[in-house]
Amino acid sequence: MLTRRRTLLATATAACAALLLATPMTTSATTPSPAETSAAAEAAHADKAIYLVHKVGTPELRSAVARTGIDVMGADGDVMSVRASEAEVRVLRAKGFEVEFRAAGEHGDHSHGDLGIADFPPADAAYHNFAEVTAELRKAEADHPGIAQLRSIGKSHENRDLWMIKISDNVATDENEPEVLFNCNQHAREHLTVEMCLRIVNRFTDGYTTDPAIKSFVDSREIWVIPSVNPDGSEYDVATGSYRSWRKNRQAPGGTDLNRNWDYNWGCCGGSSGSTSSDTYRGPSAFSAPETARLRDFVNSRVVGGKQQITANIDFHTFSELVLWPYGYTTADTGPGLTADDARTFQTLGRQMAATNNYKPQQSSDLYITDGSSIDWMWGRHKIWSYTFEMFPSSIWGGGFYPPDEVINRETSRNDRAVDLMLTYADCVPRVIGKTC
Ligand code: 0X9
Ligand code: CA
Ligand code: CA
Ligand code: CA
Ligand code: ZN
């Protein structure tokens, strides 16, 4: 970690000098040329640096920043951290925002050089790359054949399997038990979330014979876990041995933000970008990304006899330590298909979960407006009680998207009780406000 800090500072100083000498960039975040090549887009992406935007203490101000299509990393108090090109910073400053340079783009250990070794830097070896995730899931299934079943819900853009593991007693049978979905890694660089899903898998399989509470969850629920919704982006992020801060999937020309690609008020409200070079590019149409389309297909397939079997969902992200609920597209607490009782239910369970992990509970639009997010679709289309968790750290100072692997155990186990609470209420989530189902 000390080594990393030193590397980051050294890189920042060097890049600072480089920025002063650099000629103005020819690509702009707001007006991408249709002919822009992937290579140019990637070069522009790599040139971005980290800035703090000050005095953005309201959802309106934060949404105004996000609406420019800039890459928002996190928000803490009245400060947002963003990854931006010089052109993007000019746009923000022209709108009156106070923007302060912090550091060059995040980079990990450079000891690999750019050898194309598709793995985490040695210092972060405990994080699982795609091959290691695959092996871990195969092992869980092999070790616990009665309660764990691995399958693929389809392929990513680059043809990787979108793995899903089911955990339940009589796992081969579709029983009449509440179903709960945990999905991770819609955003490539949010590697800690993959570890979160793997922890859920290992806890509910390895603990089955020894822990009565685990056994009772596994026996009474059907748990679906998808550790990586975006394996292409995730592999790309670590492919050179230094982190690339990559967020989107890998569809040309510059990737699509999977969490802006869902078909519920897709692109409605300034909560996503139509520019291919933006980090919140929503794609040319809803579900244009195979990764979101396959997850959609799976969730749609759980409508059995006219009834959606999945009652609850957590979509894990990093970072900011938040528990977020729908809707993201509007700041109103209620909306079409989201009644006052629904809102109270979301708030009550959200606050209870947040009390267990010491995250901050709020409606997702209290952070900033997002449209086309998965949780809006899960609720809007399927009435699934769906939450976004933004995991550790609380701010960019805790390591941003790249906390050292030493924190994995502490920061994933931190969510055990919240996960258990969601499973507890999965038979009837409104029970949390005293209602019956
Ligand atoms: O912007 C996002 O997609 C999430 N933040 S992140 O830094 N992980 O990218 C927040 C999404 C919150 N909004 C909804 N889930 N609707
Ligand atoms: Ca380490
Ligand atoms: Ca079962
Ligand atoms: Ca079932
Ligand atoms: Zn995210």
UniProtKB/TrEMBL annotation:
The keyword Cell cycle does not apply. Its cofactor is Zn(2+). It holds the Pfam family Peptidase_M14. SMART domains: Zn_pept (SM00631). Residues 126-426 form the Peptidase M14 domain. The active site is at E390. One of its GO terms (molecular function) is zinc ion binding. SUPFAM superfamilies: Zn-dependent exopeptidases. GO terms for cellular component: extracellular space. Keywords: Carboxypeptidase, Hydrolase, Metal-binding, Metalloprotease, Protease, Signal, Zinc. PROSITE patterns: CARBOXYPEPT_ZN_1, CARBOXYPEPT_ZN_2, PEPTIDASE_M14, TAT. Its EC number is 3.4.17.18. The keyword Heme does not apply. One of its GO terms (biological process) is proteolysis. It catalyses: Releases a C-terminal residue, which may be hydrophobic or positively charged. Belongs to the peptidase M14 family. This is Zinc carboxypeptidase.
